[in-house]
Write a structure and sequence with these properties.
Radius of gyration: 15 Å
Shape: elongated
Number of strands: 0
Number of helices: 2
Helix content: 40-55%
């Protein structure tokens, strides 16, 4: 069995997901999750309600 490193994991993800834009949907307690997601600095964070309407 071979080991997995960061480069191999990235390549595997590219083969499955591709190199294009990606949308992540994260569900949970906004107060505890949102600051951590924003701290990653990986893109825009959009908060929507259960109907897809933007939440201020």
């Amino acid at each position: 069995m071979s080991g997995m490193d960061g480069a191999r994991a990235t390549e595997a993800a590219r083969q499955i997901v591709g190199d294009g834009p990606t949308t992540w949907v994260v569900v949970g307690d906004r107060a505890s999750i949102e600051p951590k997601i924003r701290a990653l600095g990986i893109g825009d964070v959009q908060v929507v309600d259960i109907h897809g309407r933007p939440v201020p």
